[in-house]
Amino acid sequence: MGCGALNYFTRAFRYLGVKLSSSINDTADVESRIAAASGAFRKLESVFLSRRVKPHAKRAAYVAVVLAHSTIRSRSLEPH
Question: Which one, of 76, 79, 73, 77, lies nearest residue 30 by Cα?
């Protein structure tokens, strides 16, 4: 910080799959996960509303895409 160097600051950034923010709480990460799961759900909306797709296939799509999308980041930080 000095010697003519530019310093950049950000309010939030992603590190190891977790969204960290300057507010030092998990609100930004939780909101990011909800947005990701909602986006995945919207992409599959036609599948979920289709009468031609059987319920077990809808469940499999939900588990594979929506749940995985919203929880994969938390699994990477669990202690082994």
Answer: 73
Q: What are phi and psi of 28, to 5 degrees?
A: -60, -40
Which residues pair with residue 70 across a beta bridge? none
Q: What pLDDT score was predicted for residue 67?
A: 72
Instruction: Note down the domain range covering 71.
Output: 12-75
| Distance between start and end Cα atoms, the chain | 38
Both structure tokens of 13: 């950034």
User: Which residues contact residue 51 at a Cβ distance below 8 angstroms, ignoring those fewer than 6 apart?
Assistant: none
Contact of 44 with 62, CB cutoff 8 Å: yes
SS3 call for 57:
helix
Residue 28 inside a domain? The answer is yes
pLDDT at 16 over 80: no
